[in-house]
Design goal:
Strand order of the largest sheet: 7-6-5-10-11
Shape: elongated
Number of helices: 3
Number of strands: 11
Largest sheet: 5 strands, mixed
Helix content: 25-40%
Strand content: 25-35%
Order of helices and strands: EEEEEEEEEHEHHE
């Protein structure tokens, strides 16, 4: 969806915090600034300013990808329908996606503090949507049952090497996917109590 462009960026003297990341190797960095006037952004040649009171919702989530197992995401929605995504990682080269944990965390915490000071009534949501989360949980349970069945069959026919492999694979799967499901449990949070599982 298109971003809502409200105003120009704030003067340098009013900026409280900055954050930038590269969403891809092609194109410039996505740049964000927190000023007295609101959240200023520069994305794909466009720029604007969202007043803190005009931010309708923030969703924090844990979104690992193949290139970066620890990636966090904040999705912001404007009252007029515009959307902005802020990621905790940045593309450096074709083979490297670098984490920016400290900068991302500081920026997100400061954004929440600024919105609270402005009297924001934004919806603060953590994790995945309830439908997607439920589907993921059911999928995890079905895979777990299938693994258990394969393990029992391997032991019954004396394939101990296969049973060991299945046990190791199941442990790795539970650690990776189970951690994703646990972190992204649907929740509602408050400005003074951000979910630690959804921050670096």
């Amino acid at each position: 969806m298109p971003l809502q462009e409200d105003a120009a960026l704030a003067p340098e003297s009013e900026v409280a915090a900055r954050y930038a990341y590269r969403a891809s190797l092609i194109g410039g960095a996505h740049q964000f600034e927190l000023s007295d006037g609101g959240l200023a952004w520069r994305i794909a040649g466009r720029r604007g300013l969202w007043r803190y009171g005009d931010i309708a919702a923030i969703r924090l989530s844990f979104r690992p990808v193949s290139m970066q197992a620890r990636r966090f995401r904040a999705d912001l929605r404007h009252i007029n329908g515009g959307r902005i995504a802020i990621l905790s990682t940045s593309w450096q080269t074709a083979a490297l996606m670098a984490p920016q944990d400290a900068g991302y965390r500081d920026f997100i915490v400061t954004l929440h503090a600024r919105m609270a000071e402005a009297g924001s009534r934004a919806a603060l949501i953590g994790g995945l949507g309830a439908t997607v989360y439920s589907a993921g949980f059911v999928f995890l349970a079905l895979v777990g049952l299938a693994m258990a069945g394969l393990l029992v069959r391997s032991l019954a026919v004396g394939e101990f090497a296969g049973a060991l492999f299945i046990t190791g694979f199941a442990a790795l799967f539970a650690w990776q996917v189970g951690g994703f499901i646990r972190r992204n449990r649907p929740r509602v949070y408050r400005f003074d109590n951000l979910p630690e599982a959804l921050l670096p």
